[in-house]
Write a structure and sequence with these properties.
Layout (H helix, E strand, L loop, with lengths): L3 H8 L2 E2 L4 H6 L19 H4 L1 H13 L4 E3 L7 H4 L8 H19 L7 E6 L13 H18 L3 E7 L2 H17 L9 E5 L13 H8 L6 E5 L4 H14 L9 E5 L6 E3 L2 E3 L4 H15 L3 E2 L7 H13 L18 E3 L4 E3 L7 E8 L4 H8 L3 H15 L3 E5 L7 H15 L4 E4 L3 H8 L7 E5 L4 H15 L2 E5 L13 H18 L7 E4 L15 H15 L4 E2 L12 H18 L3 E4 L12 H11 L23 H8 L18 H11 L5 H9 L4 H21 L5 H18 L12 E7 L7 H11 L3 E5 L6 H11 L3 E5 L3 H16 L6 E4 L5 H11 L4 E3 L3 H12 L3 H13 L3 H26 L23 E5 L4 H4 L5 H8 L9 H25 L6 E12 L2 E5 L7 E6 L24 E9 L2 H12 L3 H29 L10 H4 L7 E3 L12 H8 L7 E2 L5 E2 L3 E7 L10
Parallel strand pairs: 1-10, 2-3, 3-4, 4-5, 5-6, 6-7, 7-10, 13-14, 13-20, 14-15, 15-16, 16-17, 17-18, 18-19, 21-22, 21-23, 23-24, 24-25
Antiparallel strand pairs: 8-9, 11-12, 26-27, 27-28, 27-30, 28-29, 30-34, 31-34, 32-33
Helix pairs in contact: 4-6, 6-7, 7-8, 10-11, 11-12, 14-15, 15-16, 16-17, 18-19, 19-20, 20-21, 21-22, 23-24, 23-25, 23-26, 25-26, 26-38, 27-31, 37-38
């Protein structure tokens, strides 16, 4: 019986229910009695409390829902086994459908039937992650589907899907259960809803494009999104589905959308969702109107109130009929997918390159790796083909006598699919081997291959694999002919292809674009008469197949054509043959692409000889196609001529890398320069037989460090690699130390290092420590927040040659100046090195240098500090002074202008601060910021503390550019774009992933937030903050500077004026990832693990920034202004959202002392934060801000 649900879905917009779990957990149910001791197993409630479940269903139906989902989200065998309820899988699902059916029948009318949607969640185990197997999941889902079908479900929904492989398995399980009951998807349709995380992909990393490509050939009624995020984060994905789903091979299929009520967060032990019905429905309305979404509803956090407003709004906007999408939908290009991304069959400026080097019968290297079961090596070989051979797809053939081929295929596929981002072509003659690989391949693969050699039965078996696992299919030109099964003529190649086309498309329903015909490349290098025409017949076969079946693809195993020839001859013949095949219409080839030469790299004589061989240009009297132009000898043999051209060619046909034999001295330096620890002890032991330990350090190891410094200074070496060199230097010195005489332990010089009072930042200071101490200096690093008295004491105690002061913030520069005055007052004139992010060379050399009686030097970076120390200890300070004088003398007019501008700005700020102190800040004419913006409703008044925030929610909000390039100092420098991208993928990305895992596992980062909402009003330049209970009692007042020109902007202008009689709302937050981040980084620093110290420190800083970004988004959701958010996280870093977040110290609110007011309002001590003397937050990995909701609020300078 045709599905009534599908009929209604085609004719009108259907509204589904909201969050079942949200409603269940709002009830006061007993774990012991209602859950039978199975805590959080909500599925059991259909048996113990059907009244509660039916009540929830009816609440949504009364709100206007057309359909409700059964309470069976986790009721599959894999999940229920965790509660020892596996035997009850069928009965629980049947009861769940019956309870929903009863509720629907109670509310159904002739005009508005109500439908039961059988909910089938992802469970707790995924195949791609190795938690379960295909067969176990298939059995689990099939039993669940049986119960739902027998209980009366109108449609089955695979929802919250996190893994394409899981979806494919679930679809097959449902199809099997339907078949058992003599039903099809025409009777009970299948819906699929995937979950896209805040990362922009599914949990396992799949993009929405990959999901569309991989699922388009399955018989599903709809594809959509649900859970994980609110509608704002789904916008791009829904837009893609609106454009590319429901057209072409998916014509007539629908798009669904069931978002959460915003991003969830744990508050006081309970999960909260901030999005209220109004902004939720506003976003959903756009999806229906703009993207043709025709099945809508809610997921976690949505309530009957959300569904009621959704229903009423769709009705009022007369959107009960689905929006016509025909004018803007475009079918996606046919193709295949990896786990992560899709790949088109037809490439714009190339053919589809299939890497051939993972073939047990064709690659010696792969065969050796397979024999050794070196699976990591095989993954590296796969990556190498992508990077160096430009492979779009990787062929994988493990057929090897004497081994368990199915096991090998499984082991390799499950590793490669997660670590290499290209689709696979699974290549085998064995059904069992192919299926073993397909059960581990989450994307859409290509099967290589089917043919008629063993009759239609074997052909049908391979086609069954293609339809079951959603794969493309290579079909070889081979049939049952016992004398000549491999088609040699173009005519036979076409005939077999046409026969295969008819059977694959008509009998098995495989789409023509998923068929890839291989006309078979046979050697033309043997000299045998039967092989002479193989090249030209293959070229003509491709041309005829593409002309007859233009929707299909063609492919060849290219290298067969040159089998047995010398390497250079093979490269030329393969290259020319590929050119001819592409001219004939070839769309794909299995080849080693880096060994293909373009036309301009092949000599004309060689090119012509290859063409003569391919087209068998022998005399017609001996079976050829005719002699080439200019040749008259009837005995001319194009094969002999071609071979003759390459008789003296380099047999290696490549550029073998020559290993340089390094001297002992060169090896010592190389260990330092390359940061290579392996073999260091052996090299040092060998060196001690020739040199004294101190000579090894001074003459060779330090020489290596000098090269490192030069490379860093010229941009050829990045900071993380500098730190690796420093680690090796530290190891080398430690190894040599026991062999030194005491007198040999002398130092080049010493320095006291400190971060100034009130400043908690130590990364810059510690980098200076690392470089100086590994270049022969003694460093007395006395830590952060150091008052000048302690710095002076350390200098007196140590007699150091210099003092180094570091600080990050503008306020710290003021402290440095105060410190210099104090040194003057005590008659101390020791050289002082100054550095830090807020300090400029000009300010240091042009101002601070003039107020100190001793010498002051600016340290741009650690190596600049090293050079300065070298001059100080060798009494060459005059050289530095001359350089400074020359720089100051060369200042341009532009620099003078900038300096004057900064001075004037400083004077204005000084006047502003003085005005704040005496209450006389002048209010210049107010800006033209709008004053009629509706005031959002605060979700609560006062402040709240939120702890135990899941790091996986925060990590997607990390700004990788700021982390990789800013904190970790991986910069492009002299590298081209491809080289830098390769470094990011191969080196930096894995560091990030490793640190994420470590920070979660060891709880190094512990995100906590204190935030709140306060009534407020503007009063000129002031922002008045009122008591959260008594909205008429002023409790704080901020005074912000105003632009004297331009737009006359001031932060207070973004809030309602006190004269309006309306209270506005001010949000603010303070976030931290905890002191453990600082402690763990310091442990690495003390252990001389400098690179890891840099990485972990940067990770902590940027995770705190990510937490601030994440919580700002949460605040926008709670204020119902988040619908203007960009769905792309990276856009949030450039303020692609409504309003703004201002931290004290920003140009618009530069007074750091305002932190005290924020701290009085929020009391961040509850999350372990305190203020330093300079109003910085300790721990360092913390930040605070006020949040302005006004849509015109952006960053500006005063």
């Amino acid at each position: 019986m045709p599905s009534t649900f599908a009929d209604h879905a085609r004719r009108r917009t259907l509204i589904l229910d909201g969050g079942m779990g949200t409603q269940i957990f709002s009830r006061n149910l007993s774990v012991e009695h209602d859950y039978c001791g199975c805590e959080n197993c909500t599925d059991i409630l259909v048996r113990t409390r059907p009244d509660v479940i039916q009540e929830i269903h009816e609440a949504y139906l009364a709100a206007g829902a057309d359909a409700v989902e059964t309470d069976s989200f986790g009721a599959n065998k894999l999940v229920l086994s965790e509660f020892d309820l596996t035997p009850e899988t069928y009965s629980l699902n049947k009861m769940a459908a019956e309870v929903a059916r009863a509720a629907c029948d109670k509310h159904a009318t002739e005009d508005k039937p109500r439908f039961v949607i059988g909910s089938m969640g992802p469970g707790t185990k995924l195949i791609t992650l190795g938690n379960t197997t295909w067969d176990e999941m298939l059995d689990s889902y099939r039993e669940q589907a049986r119960g739902l079908i027998d209980g009366g479900a109108d449609v089955l929904l695979l929802e919250t899907c996190q893994d394409i492989l899981q979806i494919k398995c679930g679809i097959n399980a449902i199809l099997a259960a339907l078949s058992e009951r003599n039903k099809t998807v025409d009777d009970i349709p299948i819906m699929v809803s995937v979950t896209m995380e805040t990362t922009g992909t599914m949990l396992v990393g799949s993009a929405i494009e990959a999901a569309v490509t991989a699922l388009s050939q399955y018989p599903i009624m709809s594809l959509g999104l649900n859970c994980a995020t609110g509608p704002a984060e789904m916008a791009d994905h829904i837009a893609y589905l609106g454009r590319h789903w429901g057209v072409g091979r998916t014509a007539g299929r629908m798009v669904s959308c069931l978002p959460n009520a915003g991003l969830p967060v744990l508050v006081e032990g309970r999960t909260e969702y901030p999005l209220q019905p109004e902004p939720f429905v506003e976003a959903m309305l756009r999806f229906v109107q703009q993207h043709g979404v025709s099945i809508v509803g809610g997921c976690c956090g949505t309530t009957p109130a959300h569904i009621r407003l959704l229903h009423d709004t769709i009705r009022d906007h007369r959107l009960l009929s689905p929006t016509d999408r025909s004018t803007h939908v475009v079918a996606p290009a046919p193709g295949v997918t990896s786990l992560y991304q899709s790949q088109d069959y037809r490439q714009d400026n190339s053919l589809l390159i299939v890497g051939e080097r993972m073939n047990a019968s064709g690659s010696k290297k792969f065969k050796q790796l397979l024999e050794a079961e070196d699976f990591d090596g095989i993954v590296s070989l796969a990556r190498e083909q992508v990077r160096h051979d430009s492979a779009h797809v990787l062929d994988l053939n493990v057929d090897y006598a004497g081994r368990d081929n199915a096991r090998d295929m499984s082991e390799i596929v499950k590793r490669v699919v997660r670590q290499v981002d290209v689709p696979l072509m699974l290549d085998s003659t064995q059904i069992k081997t192919l299926e073993a690989g397909l059960k581990h391949a989450p994307g859409k693969c290509i099967i290589n291959s089917a043919n008629f050699e063993d009759g239609e039965h074997k052909f049908d078996e391979v086609c069954r694999l293609a339809t079951t696992y959603g794969a493309g299919l290579v079909i070889g030109s081979i049939d049952e002919d016992k004398e000549a099964s491999m088609a040699r003529t173009a005519e036979r190649k076409l005939a077999i292809a046409q026969r295969a086309y008819e059977r694959a498309t008509r009998v098995h329903g495989i789409a023509p674009e998923d068929l890839m015909f291989d006309p078979l490349v046979l050697p033309i290098s043997t000299g045998m008469a039967s092989d002479r025409r193989s090249g030209l017949e293959t070229v003509e076969g491709v041309r005829r197949i593409m002309r007859a079946m233009p929707e299909c693809q063609t492919t060849v195993g290219l290298s067969n054509v040159s089998f047995g020839l010398r390497p250079m001859a093979r490269i030329v013949l393969n290259s020319v043959f590929l050119h001819e095949l592409r001219e004939a219409g070839l769309t794909s080839a299995i080849l080693h692409f880096s060994k293909i030469l373009p036309r301009n790299k092949i000599a004309d004589e060689q090119w012509a000889a290859a063409l003569d061989l391919i087209y068998d240009r022998r005399d017609t009297s001996i079976g050829g196609t005719g002699l080439p132009a200019g040749v008259t000898d009837p005995k001319f043999d194009p094969l002999s001529r071609f071979v003759e051209l390459f008789k003296d060619a380099d047999s290696t046909a490549g550029t073998a890398r020559v290993t340089k034999n390094l001297t002992l001295e060169e090896r010592l330096q190389a260990h330092i320069i390359d940061g290579e620890k392996e073999g260091l002890a052996v090299t040092l032991t060998e060196a001690m037989a020739k040199y004294k330990p101190l000579d090894i350090i001074n003459d060779h190891l330090l020489a290596g460090m000098k090269v490192v410094g030069d490379l860093f200074g010229s941009g050829q070496m990045q900071l993380p690699f500098v730190l690796q060199s420093a680690e090796v230097m530290k190891m080398a010195v430690a190894h040599l130390q026991p062999f030194m005489e005491k007198a040999e332990g002398s130092t080049k010089g010493s320095i006291v290092l400190a971060t100034v009072k009130g400043d908690v930042h130590d990364i810059g200071k510690n980098l200076v420590d690392i470089i100086l101490s590994n270049n022969g200096y003694t460093v007395h690093n006395i830590g952060i927040k150091q008052p000048i008295a302690d710095i002076i004491k350390a200098w007196k105690d140590t007699g150091a040659h210099a003092i180094g002061l570091s600080g990050l913030l503008v306020k710290s520069v003021t402290v440095m100046e105060e410190n210099l005055h104090e040194l003057n007052a005590q008659g101390i004139s020791v050289p002082v090195l100054l550095g830090g992010a807020a300090l400029t060379r000009h300010y240091c050399e042009g101002h601070l240098r003039t107020i100190y009686k001793g010498r002051v030097y600016y340290g741009k970076d650690a190596f600049d500090g090293l050079r300065t120390m070298d001059h100080i200890v060798s009494d060459r300070q005059e050289t530095l002074n001359i350089e400074i004088d020359e720089r100051l003398g060369k200042r341009t007019a532009a620099e003078e202008t900038i300096a004057r501008s900064r001075a004037e700005s400083a004077k204005r700020m000084e006047a502003f601060e003085q005005g704040k102190a005496d209450g006389s800040v002048a209010v210049i004419e107010r800006s033209e910021v709008r004053t009629d913006i509706p005031i959002p409703r605060a979700p609560f008044w006062g402040s709240r503390v939120v702890t135990d925030i899941d790091l996986d929610q925060i990590f997607p909000f990390i700004n990788k550019v700021a982390l990789y390039r800013g904190q970790w100092q991986f910069k492009q420098g002299a590298m081209d774009d491809d080289q830098f991208e390769a470094q990011i993928q191969d080196t930096v990305g894995p560091i990030f992933d490793r640190l994420k895992d470590r920070c979660k596992r060891e709880r190094i980062l512990r995100p906590s937030v204190v935030y709140g909402y306060f009534p407020c009003n503007s009063d000129g330049n002031d922002l008045i903050v009122y008591d959260p209970i008594d909205h008429n009692r002023e409790i704080e007042r901020f005074t912000f500077p105003r632009q004297s020109g331009r737009k006359r902007l001031c932060i207070s202008d973004y809030f309602r004026d006190v004269s309006s009689g309306q209270r506005d709302v001010l949000a603010m937050h303070c976030v931290t990832v905890g002191k453990q981040a600082t402690e763990a980084a310091q442990e690495l620093y003390k252990a001389n693990q400098y690179s890891e110290y840099l990485y972990l420190h940067g990770m902590g800083v940027e995770t705190a920034e990510a937490l601030a970004e994440f919580w700002h988004k949460r605040i926008r959701q709670e204020l119902s202004i988040a619908n203007d958010d960009s769905p792309r996280v990276k856009d949030l870093f450039t303020q692609k959202y409504r309003g703004s977040r201002y931290s004290f110290g920003y140009p618009a609110c530069p007074d750091m002392s305002d932190q005290e007011k924020l701290f009085r309002l929020l009391d961040p001590s509850r999350i372990g934060c305190e203020l330093t003397d300079n109003w910085q937050i300790d721990p360092e990995q913390s930040t605070s801000a006020i949040v302005v909701h006004h849509p015109e609020a952006k960053y500006f300078n005063v």
